[in-house]
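We emphasize that the prediction below concerns an isolated chain of 411 residues; any contacts that depend on oligomerization or on bound cofactors are therefore not represented. The input was used exactly as deposited, without trimming of termini.
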Amino acid sequence: YIKCAENPDLRFIVSNTTEAGIQYDSSAKLDDKPQASYPGKLTAFLYHRFKAFNGAHDKGLILIPCELSDDAGLNLRICILQHARDWHLGPDFINWFNNDCDVCSCLVDRIVPGYFPLLTKEENGKTQAENLCEKLGYEDKLLDSAELFHFWVIESAKSHEDELPLVKAGLSVKWVQNMDYYHTRKVRILNGAHTSSVLAAYLAGSNYVQDIVCSEKVGTGFNEPNAAAQKFMHDVIFNEIIPSIDGDQEDLKGYANDVWTRFQNPFNPHRLIEISLNSVAKYWTRCLPSITQSIAKNGKVPKLLSFSMAALIAFYNGTEIKTDERGGKYLESKRGDETYQNKDTVPVLEFFAALNKETKDAKVIANRVLSNVDFWKEDLTKYAGLEESVAKNLADIQTKGMKQALSDIVK
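Result of the prediction step, given as a token string:
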């Protein structure tokens, strides 16, 4: 890996490590092989390149982090500079990084569920994936499913279109100096719809986004549509998320309608358990701003978003942390009689495992979760009525079950 830094032709590094990926790890060391965090790995990589080319100005790199967190580029830059200071990499390296490298925030708008062996079978009885691999002449275990729609906004003081001619290639890409509106619109509506809805829908028995948004079964492998989950997702988008956003409400509604159509695509099945990865960090980025800004605008707690926070807590219902076949940690949680792997950062898993062992009291659990500043960067119990609403919803989920609680909240 580190040898790749010596490639003279390298110019761009693109990342997508999810919202939990751009975090500063004070335990990282320069001689770790490799560093545990992405910023740590990247700092070591950049420093090796700096030394390999004696700080040549034309060997700086353009970094495009595609994580959905606000100001991902700025946060990545801050992490790299902190590592540089902690590791005593020297002022020459810091000057080279600041002057000859560019770290761009960006927004990627495309639904890519990732590897998927495609549900439907074709006339010869084989799956679409099997037939595709037969045509290729080899088994492709990295075969991806993705929608045709794509939109990429890259924020930089300088456009790099001359070196990376994406627009000239006919792709839907914008180089901009400020992407705040595009970022807010997409993260709060598309991603916010996912994170606020899919955990409740999963616990209620759904497995795919299509099980939520489609009014009838759309293909082999999908469950019966969940009408309550559908109404919940629709209403949380149009009645709570959009009104909480500053901006042209008609434009926001138009974008949301397009998103709803994109969610219904039966040829791009999106598993809810995959969307659930790192849900705490995702909730902080995607849903919490809609809650706090809704309270600021209306003076009351949004009903459905409050329920979505309770659903998030209910999703982390396990008490045992286990290790998967790749060495990753997960919280073994339950949906009815079956178990599922709830994957998040180890501190998040440890917090919920310990809390669930200690108590099942909805009020205590809601208080502990909402007051966890490590999760939310603030104590959410300060928002009048939020703790009480989340605790009540969590108690309803515990006593009625998610399916009934979800039906009741959308009546």
